[in-house]
UniProtKB/TrEMBL annotation:
InterPro entries: DedA_domain, VTT_dom. The chain crosses the membrane at residues 12-33, 39-63, 123-146, 158-177. Keywords: Membrane, Transmembrane, Transmembrane helix. Residues 23-143 form the VTT domain. GO terms for cellular component: plasma membrane. Pfam families: VTT_dom. This is VTT domain-containing protein. It comes from Pseudomonas taeanensis MS-3.
C-alpha cells in the first residue's frame, strides 16, 4: 500500500484525530492531499473545524472541573496557563479566538480558560469562530503548497510522493523538536 493510498483511506480520520489535539501538521498535509485530489478540501476543512471545536471544548470543560489538579500533575503547563490568564485579563475574546494559533498553548490554553471565570457559552461561541478561521487557513496553507509545487513542476504527479514524504518528515521533525524542548 502506498502513502497516497493510506492518505486517501484514512485521511479524514487522521484529520479529525489531529484536530482534536495540536493538528496543524496533519491539517497542512490534508490540505496538500486536497489539492492533489486525494481528499475533498471542503470536507477536510469541515472535519478539522469539528475536531478543533470538540477538542478545545473538551479541554475547556476538563479545566473547569480538574484544572488545578492537572496543573499540579503537569507542572510544565503552569507557565502556559499563567500566560493565558494574563492575556485573558486584557483581551478575552481575542485570546479565546486566537489560542489555537499560539504555539504551545493549543491544549493548555483551553484548559486555562476553563479554569477562569469565562462563561461556558462565551467560550463556545468564540471557540467556534476561532476554529472557523483556523481550519481553512491551516488547510489552505497545505493547499497553497500543492498549488505552488504544481506551478513549479509541470508534472507534479512524479513528485507528489516525495512532497508528501517531505511534509511528513518536516512534521515529525517539528514534533520531535517540540518534544525535546519540553523534556527536561
Amino acid at each position: 500500500m502506498t502513502l497516497t493510498q493510506l492518505l486517501a483511506d484514512y485521511g479524514y480520520l487522521a484529520v479529525f484525530a489531529g484536530s482534536l489535539l495540536e493538528g496543524e501538521s496533519m491539517l497542512v498535509l490534508a490540505g496538500f492531499a486536497g489539492h492533489q485530489g486525494y481528499l475533498s478540501f471542503p470536507l477536510v476543512v469541515l472535519i478539522a473545524l469539528c475536531g478543533g471545536v470538540l477538542g478545545d471544548q473538551f479541554f475547556f470543560f476538563l479545566g473547569r472541573r480538574y484544572g488545578e489538579q492537572l496543573i499540579r500533575r503537569f507542572p510544565r503547563w503552569q507557565p502556559g496557563a499563567q500566560r493565558v490568564n494574563r492575556m485573558l485579563l486584557q483581551h478575552q475574546v481575542s485570546v479565546i479566538v486566537g489560542v489555537r494559533f499560539m504555539y504551545g498553548l493549543r491544549i493548555v490554553g483551553p484548559l486555562a480558560i476553563g479554569m477562569s471565570e469565562v462563561p461556558a457559552w462565551r467560550f463556545i461561541l468564540f471557540n467556534v469562530i476561532g476554529a472557523a478561521l483556523w481550519a481553512p487557513l491551516i488547510a489552505g496553507a497545505g493547499y497553497l503548497f500543492g498549488q505552488t509545487l504544481q506551478w513549479l513542476f509541470a508534472d507534479i504527479k512524479r513528485y507528489e510522493e516525495a512532497a508528501l514524504l517531505l511534509i511528513i518528515a518536516t512534521a515529525l521533525l517539528f514534533g520531535l523538536l517540540r518534544h525535546r524542548r519540553r523534556s527536561p
